[in-house]
């Protein structure tokens, strides 16, 4: 293939643009800021789950306290009723004995319930404190996620700006280069190689490997408008100096 030496040198500009675009794409795929977002999302999910567990625990204890309150109130109501009957003097001696026995039993029952009530209320208070702490942790995790997203989006914005600018440069360069030269260059890149590199001494600028004497002699002796390729990587070897 033949191509004007100046067009071949313009391939170096195209290769530089493509290298920056490749770095931007690699940065997008491997950016630690995205990993930080994913970790923050996981932490927020864990914090949300912890809040649900704490809320459930507190709700269960609230129900237990309410149940004990009702039971204590029922016992006290029966005590009031029985004591009222005793105080009225309108019951027989046998009924008085039975009422006193029931009052003693009710007092013991109320004592047990009030002890249970106190223990559950202490647990309820501790559960409320736990829920408050979990809510605070959730808010902290939410803020951390928002910060991580902001940092990631900032980096993505920079990458996007680079891609747009370099994409525009690439479009301009393609319009200035011979179609067959661009086609060859793109075929080389499609194989995962650098499309073109400058010959520096005896080293290919694309793969950075040194050429042996025979290859170097063939490259250097080729006509200026010959499109020569590196035997190691297949890239177009650009020779000579810029005009």
From TrEMBL:
Which residue numbers delimit the C4-type zinc ribbon domain? 203-237
Superkingdom as given in the UniProt entry: Bacteria
List every stretch annotated Disordered. 74-93
Annotated coiled-coil positions are none
Name all CT398-like coiled coil hairpin domain ranges: 14-192
Q: Where is the composition biased (Basic and acidic residues)?
A: 74-84
User: A Pfam family in this protein?
Assistant: CT398_CC
Q: Which InterPro entries match?
A: CT398_CC_hairpin (IPR056003), Oxidative_Scav/Glycosyltrans (IPR052376), Zf-RING_7 (IPR003743)
Protein name per its UniProtKB record: C4-type zinc ribbon domain-containing protein
Instruction: Identify the species of origin.
Output: Actinomycetospora endophytica
* Record lineage: Bacteria, Bacillati, Actinomycetota, Actinomycetes, Pseudonocardiales
């Amino acid at each position: 293939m033949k191509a004007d030496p100046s067009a071949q040198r313009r391939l170096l500009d195209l290769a530089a643009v493509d290298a920056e675009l490749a770095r931007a794409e690699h940065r997008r795929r491997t950016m630690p800021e995205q990993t930080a977002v994913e970790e923050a999302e996981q932490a927020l999910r864990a914090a949300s789950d912890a809040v649900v567990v704490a809320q459930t625990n507190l709700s269960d204890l609230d129900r237990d306290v309410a149940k004990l309150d009702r039971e204590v109130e029922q016992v006290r109501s029966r005590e009031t009723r029985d004591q009222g009957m005793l105080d009225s003097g309108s019951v027989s001696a046998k009924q008085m004995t039975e009422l006193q026995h029931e009052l003693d039993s009710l007092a013991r029952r109320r004592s047990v319930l009030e002890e249970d009530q106190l223990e559950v209320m202490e647990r309820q208070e501790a559960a409320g404190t736990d829920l408050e702490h979990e809510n605070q942790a959730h808010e902290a995790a939410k803020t951390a996620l928002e910060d991580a997203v902001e940092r990631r989006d900032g980096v993505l914005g920079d990458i996007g700006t680079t891609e747009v600018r370099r994409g525009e440069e690439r479009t301009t360069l393609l319009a200035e280069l011979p179609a067959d030269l661009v086609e060859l260059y793109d075929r080389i890149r499609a194989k995962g190689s650098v499309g073109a590199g400058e010959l520096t001494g005896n080293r290919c600028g694309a793969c950075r490997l040194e050429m042996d004497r025979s290859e170097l002699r063939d490259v250097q002796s080729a006509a200026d408008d010959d499109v020569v390729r590196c035997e190691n990587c297949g890239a177009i070897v650009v020779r000579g100096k810029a005009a």
